[in-house]
Amino acid sequence: MAPSRLLLLASQLLLLLGFSQPYFLTNCSLSHGSSPVWAVAVDCGGRQLLSVPADLPPGTTSLFFSYNRLQAVSRLDFRSMRRLRRLVLSYNRIARVEQGSFLHQGALETLDLSYNLLCNLTENMFQGLSNLTRLDLSSNQIRVLHPIVFRLLTSVHTVLLESNLLRRVEDVQPLLLLPNIHSLKLASNLFTSFQSSDLPLTQSSALETLDLSSCRLLESFGITTPVFPCLRCLDLSMSGVQSGLRWDVTNRTFLRSVSQLSFNEPLLPLDNVLHVLQSLDSLAEVQLNYVEDWIRGGLLDTLCLIPTLRTLVLVYNHLGRSTLGLARCSQLSILDLSWTYLRTLPEGSVRSMKRLKVLRLQTNFLTEVPKDVGRLVSLRTLDLNDNLISELRCGDFGDAAGLTDLDLGTNRIAKLDGCAFQNLTRLRTLDLSHNLLWTYGGTFRTGLQSLERLDLSRGFLFILHNGDFQGLRSLRYLDVSSDHIGRVQQKAFGGLKDLETLTVSIPLDYECNFRGLRRLRNLTVYLSTDRGQTRPPRASPQALYELRSLKTFTVVCRGFHFGIPLEPPEELLQTMPGLEAFAAINAFTSAPRPDTFRYLPRLQNLTLGKTDLSDLEPELFHFVPDLQTLDLSETSLRSLDFLSGADLFRLRSLSLRDNRLVTVNHTVLRSLPALVQLDLTGNPFACDCSNAAFIEWAKTNNQTQVVNAHEYGCAFPPSRHGARLMDFDTQSCFLDLGLVCFASSGALVVLTLLASFVHHFLRWQMLYAYRLFLAFLYDRRRKRAGPERYDAFVSYNVHDEDWVYRHLLPELEGRQGWRLCLHHRDFQPGRPILENITDAIYSSRKTLCVVSRRYLQSEWCSREVQMASFRLFDEQKDVLVLLFLEDIPSRYLSPYHRMRRLVKRRTYLSWTQAASHPGLFWDNVRRALETGDGPGQDAALLTGVPDPRQGPE
After folding, report:
1. Where are the alpha helices (DSSP H) in 691-736?
2. 852 contact partners, CB below 8 Å, separation of at least 6
3. What is the mean pLDDT of residues 104-124?
4. CATH classification (class only), 590-729
5. pTM
6. 918 Cβ partners below 8 Å, 6+ apart?
7. Of the CATH numbers 3.40.50.10140, 3.20.20.80, 2.120.10.30, 3.40.50.1220, which one belongs to the domain with range 790-930?
8. How many CB atoms lie under 10 A from the CB of residue 754?
9. Which pLDDT belongs to residue 538?
């Protein structure tokens, strides 16, 4: 497998491990850097947080936690962030760091604990920081350093302990012994002495930079042992007591490597400073700020005698009209006289500096280019920015033909003469921005053949003429943007065949074109018009011909406009097939046509701002399959429906700031599978259930970071105005009223259908079941009440009543003496029929059914049989006696399934077969009534079995 594929797989694995939790951060914002995995920055600054949020991504590589109220660092605060490389905890109230708090931060390279309340550094405070390179502990209240607190910081090269309360130089000894220590800053501490004899070092230190500035109690500085053989930079600015700083360097070789010395605003007498300078043999750079008294006392005379001196920085000194002896510093290569209140540089001040390469005169009161400049043959960089120069003369740069960088920005230059830069054949960078230029005077038509970068922005030029820049054959960057350009002629940029970046302001109805700019990669056009313009633009697509190499195109329209300057706009973009980034700010009057970007298949970044896109259609994005960044801020969008069907499968960043989005349909965002950053800042959200799904999605999705979601405010309803969108309680919203109504109505429909079915087909069965239940309860009550009142309940049809009265009653009640229950005689008047039937069956030992064809057709007789059957099968009691008055064939019994089932399973008595022997029939009835309740006690009772071919089976 190729190494690149292995790296890709490793990156994806790290991504899965590091970002498996949601991206939504309650009090922080997250951004991705250019690197795929290791550049994930989280910003929690300025939130007034009292603790480190628990929802920070474990894959965080940079955490900014400044300007909060954190009081202590806990072992659990950063335990999960094992890939953290930069941690900034400045400007908090941290007074304590628990032991082992950074035990899992083995990848940390920068730790900033400045501007806190730390008082002492404990033994294992920095345990685990084996890769730390920069440690900032400045501006605390540190008094005590544990002797071995720094022992594990083997990779650290810079330690800042400025503005603390350290008093003993011995405390910093462990730092000096670190193998890779390069820079140690101890400014603004309480040292009274810094003596190498107080540092019992067993070996030489690798320290290169030592800062002891602003130590106002420092009385002496002494290096009497060779402990700093590598020391190059020493800063003693604003250090020393009022009586002076005692300098004790007995052997110049002890500081033989010191090449840079800073004495800014010192509190030392001049004699002490001169003694210091005489003790250093290899000085190459000296910085002396706020020392005009020393300069007047002859300091420069001594400095200029140092043969190794190459850089002299005298900024923030009030030199006025005099440089007081600079002419002797002929060996200088760099001279910085910025912010020195110079009104003129006296002739001869720098003329002798034949090696001078860099001269900085920024922010002074110079009204002309100093005469000495034209005589500095070796000069390469000249900075005259922010002065009062109003005119450039032909001989200003005289013999300075080697000049490569010239900054004349922010002056008062109104015009240029053609000879102004005629000798600067090697000039590569020229800045004339923020001047009063209204004419170039042919300056750029000839000469300056090496110029690569030209900044003419913020001038007062009204017309760009044909050929104004034709002599700049090597130019790669040109900025002629201005609020005052009124006309750009067609061939204004002719001859700039190597130009790569162009920023220009042109009127909306411009006539120029960019023919010939075949290498142009970045074009920014500021279109301007006035409100009185009444005619549409008249430019044609030919104005942008031959821009096939263009990668970035930005159009910004200022003021009233008729739309993008070329109509239709797709003709403008047709000339840029390789375009990768397009931005149009206030350039469209409405949403672009769906085929606007049909000629831009490589477009990756698209910005449409300050335009009404309320009628935007998804088809607009069908021609840009590689789009990765889309910015539609300030475009009056009211919904995200345009994303549905937009085919933006590779889109990674979407910005919809300052629109009119009230609700966000998060399901639309699912059409963007690669989206990792979404910015909806400044929209008037509704804090109600319409956004509930989006809120939950923003909090739980593990791919897309909703930028600053915790700061989104509520605009609706008025009662929640000013509240936070993410604070809205969504739990009550997920009770779907529509679903509840659907389920309720569905259940009602089903219940209605079931009730109709039961009423039509099973109403008697249901009523019977109800009565059975009552019978069950009644039977239980009967068991408690005592034995049955009747020997038998006679169930018969009213049409068979004559037989019952003529034959059954006289025999069973009259001759045999049984107590019978008959409905016409023994039922209680006024009670429901079923209650009387139930009471009669459960008050009798037996139920005697007189079966005939009419009996089978009677509903009430059927209920009586059912109730007796329940007692038979449920209680396992032999309570049924069947007397058939007629022979009933099986085909007539088939519709009466319950009776047919009983006939198949039980014996019965037939009156028709016993007609010739009635005595035997009634004797069998007696025997049946005498039979006990056991289920098998009637097995021997077999009377009158009908012929199966004609009677019941």
Report:
1. 692-700
2. 797, 799, 800, 884, 885, 886, 888
3. 94
4. alpha beta
5. 0.73
6. none
7. 3.40.50.10140
8. 11
9. 45
